[in-house]
Amino acid sequence: MKKIILGGAAMLLASSAFAASVQDVAERYMKLVLAIGVHDSSYVDAYYGPAELQKEATDAKKSLATIRAEVDAALKDLAGQKAASADETLRIEFLNKQLSSMLTRIDMLNGQKFSFDDETARLYDAVSPHHDRAYYLKLVAEIDKLLPGKGTVPERLKVFRDKMVIPKDKLKPVFDASIKECRARSAKYIDLPANESFVLEFVTNKPWSGYNWYKATRRASSRSIPSSRSTSTARSTWAAMKAIPAITRTTRCWKSRW
Questions:
Q1: pLDDT at position 47, please?
Q2: 247 vs 198: CA distance, rounded Å
Q3: Most CB within 10 Å of its CB: which of 24, 83, 116, 158?
Q4: What is the pTM of this model?
Q5: Exposure of 30 by Cβ count < 10 A (0-12 exposed, 13-18 middle, 19+ buried)?
Q6: Are strands 4-6 and 44-47 parallel, antiparallel or unpaired?
Q7: Residue 122 contacts by C-beta under 8 Å, 6 or more apart in sequence?
Q8: How crowded is residue 163: how many other Cβ atoms within 10 Å of its Cβ?
C-alpha cells in the first residue's frame, strides 16, 4: 500500500515565478495527501509538518470525489510546464508521479480493482520482471556450481547460510558495529549531521522485517524483527538501508524533489 512521508521542508518557497507555480502545486499535493489520510489511516506514514494543516484536513474531511477532482486539477497545472533547471525537472516529475499515484489510490478506496502489474505501475511506477522457467533454472545451475559440499542445491544453500546466522544474543552488537561502520564509510562521501540521533528497537509480530521512522529535528528510530534466521549479510544490508543516513536521505529528498 502506498505510504507517504511528509516534511515541513516541502513548504519552502522558491524564488522564480515558475517555481512559485510548482510550489503551489507542491503545497496542494501535501494537503491532498493529508486529505486522503483521513480516509486511509495507512496512507500517511509519518507527518512532521505544521500541525494545523493536519487538523484542517481532519476537520474538513473532504469526500474522495472532491479530492480526486483537486488531484486532477493539480496535474493539469503541471502539464506542459518547462523546467528552468535540473532540480525543477526532478520536482515536476516527482509531483506528476505522486499525484498520478494518488488517483489510483483513490480509485482503490472507491472499490476499483487492478491487476498486480497494473497496480504496482500506477502506485509505484514499477513492474516486477517476468521470466520463464528456463531463466530460473539457469540461475539454479549457476548456484549449483558455486556452492561447495554434497547434496541438493537447497540443502547446500542451507548449510552455507547457517554459517552466517547471528545468535539472538549477538544481534545488537552486530547491528551497532554495522551501523557504526556504515556511518564511517558514508561520512567519507556525505556530510552527516553531527547531532543526529538514532534509536534501534527489536520487535516481533510485524508484517515487515525492518522499518525506519524519521521523527524530525534530526531524530529517527528503526525497528527490526530479530528472526531466528538473521544472517550477517542481511543485517548489515538492513543497517545500511535503514540507519545510514536516514536524515541525510530525507534532506536531499526535500531539496531535489519537493
A1: 87
A2: 10
A3: 83
A4: 0.70
A5: buried
A6: parallel
A7: 100, 101, 103, 104, 114
A8: 8
